Amino acid sequence: MNPQLAVVAVAFITITAIIARTVVKIVNMRMASGSSDELTSRVEELEGTVHSLQQELAEAQERLDFAERLLSKGSHSS
C-alpha cells in the first residue's frame, strides 16, 4: 500500500471520527435539555414523596414515644 494513501486514509478516518463525536455530543445535549421539564417534574414528585414519608415517620416516632412512656409508667407502678 502507498504510504501517502495510508496517511490520507488515517487522517480522513480521524477527522470523520472527531466530527461524528461532536455531532453525538450536540445531539445528546439537545436531548437532555429537551427532557429537562420531565426531569423537573419527576424531581418535584420525588420531593413530595420524601416530604410525605418524613411526616409519616415523625408521626410514627411520636406514637412510639407515647407507647414507650405508657409502658415505662406501667412498669414503675408494679
Textual characterization of the structure:
The chain is mainly alpha-helical. The chain contains two helices and no strands. It has two domains: 1-34; 38-78. It is rod-shaped. The chain starts with a helix and ends with a helix. The model has no long low-confidence stretch (mean pLDDT 83).
Can I get a quick summary?
With 78 residues, the chain is an all-alpha fold.
Major sheet, described briefly?
Answer: none
Which class do the helix and strand fractions yield? mainly alpha
- Portion in helices: over 70%
Q: Give the total of beta strands.
A: 0
User: Which term fits the overall shape?
Assistant: rod-shaped
Rg over C-alpha atoms, rounded to the nearest angstrom? 32 Å
List keywords for this structure.
78 residues, 2 domains, mainly alpha, 0% strand
Write the layout of secondary structure elements.
Layout: H1 3-34, H2 36-77
